[in-house]
Amino acid sequence: MWFFIPIICVVLLEIYLTPYTKVEESFNTQAVHDLLEFRLNLTSYDHFEFPGVVPRTFIGPLVLAVLAAPFHFGFKLCQFPLIYSLYLTRVVLSFLNLSALYLYFRQIRSSFGPQVCKISCFLTVSQFHFLFYASRPLPNSLALSSVLLAFVFVIRKDFASFIWTSAFAILIFRSELAVLLGLFLLLELIARNVSLDTVLAHGICALTFWVTLSITVDSYFWQKPIWPEGAVFYYNVILNKSSAWGTLPFHAYFTNLLLKAIGPLVAFLAVLAPFLDARTRNLLVPCVGFVLLYSFLPHKELRFVIYVVPVLNVCAARAWSYFSLNWLKSAFFKLAHLSFTCLVLLSLFASLVMLKCSMENYPGGVALERFHKYVSPKAEVNLHMDNLVCQTGAVRFGQLNPNWTYNKTEHLKPGSPETLRFSHLLVDMATDYQVYKSTHTVLFTVKGYSHLVFETQWPYLEIETVPKIVALQSKNYDSRAGRFESRHEKVI
After folding, report:
1. Centroid of chain to Cα 291
2. Residue 279 DSSP one-character state
3. How far apart are CA 317 and CA 481, in angstroms?
4. Which positions ≥6 away from 455 have C-beta within 8 Å?
5. What pLDDT, in 10s, does the model give residues 35-57?
6. β-strand pairing of 382-385 with 424-428
């Protein structure tokens, strides 16, 4: 399947150009780092000091760490910078997800033919978000490979494997997948392709096994009895506290988030597909039902429904193949086929623009990397990173000097005696810089994405950036000697 190669190239390019991670990926990123660096020395693990709003499972990070460990130790022997292992972690995750995606496309080739498979790959390459998420250590991305395998099994009518794989994704990573994968199973029950006895037998066994595994593994790493995904479900669904992170209208997935991810062409062709091939109904109906039901939760993010993108692409590809196979019959089919091709190329251009925007969207990671180039590695450094820095890319993989002290204590008041104890600061340029003008000097600033500007001249589109992060050095710091004397001064 040579046409899968562009997908691999796109993902690797995205990892190279946007290596840093954001706050939603923080737990898994830090957990992989701690597993690689500290192994069973739990006292040094990040999650005890910064547990996050809800607990997350260690099973995903453990899988990534085990697969990455041989290469990580090789990097250490070669004295490569620790940041290389962040690239490695994302490559390992993308390997898992792309392997599952490859098996999914092979099944599509077997069930729908090579033409549909090729068009599906073509559509996938042209879309930004799905492949971008494939290598990002989000809980949703960790579940993605299992979901893709579940799609393979349900198309094959291998229901035992489908139930076990689905239960793994639901009970370990993302409980909302019970709606998506449950709807697939419900259609098969209605069609009498599988018996209720089979579902119950495998379902009860899978539930018992995966929940027991999660409780065993996660209770060890959290040092208390816990089933993380059960706690997440209670917080997000029962208590509905996810709304505190923002809400969107009921229709947002259909009119904005999901439409932005797949594009209007795929949306149109996916809706058309069931009228051309009845087999696509069993793929499309559960996906639409899942997005519809999940829309009742006020807090909405694309990553919550990203799993349906490969299915929608296949439905759209099946409709497109109808037009391409009838290419010679009339001018209408030729015009439609050419129009679809042009729209996909336009989508590819939009993806390149979004990738460029994403490159400017991790100022915290860039600031931490640049800081190591501005200060002598032999200097005495006590660095504090504020919330914005940590939320936009500064993680433990970026803490390259073992002799320095890196601190990310939250809720410190800018200019307070606590902040003046640090020799250096990485802080929010917009809100904190003015407070430190009398006590610190500026080392550098890092710009971040602001908005797109449309111009009347070439290149017609420009990415506007503004200063986001400022690196500050205390005036009590002797840069020549590389020493710092804290006087705990207050800023007036």
Report:
1. 19
2. G
3. 65
4. 461, 462
5. 999 999 999 999 999 998 899 99
6. parallel
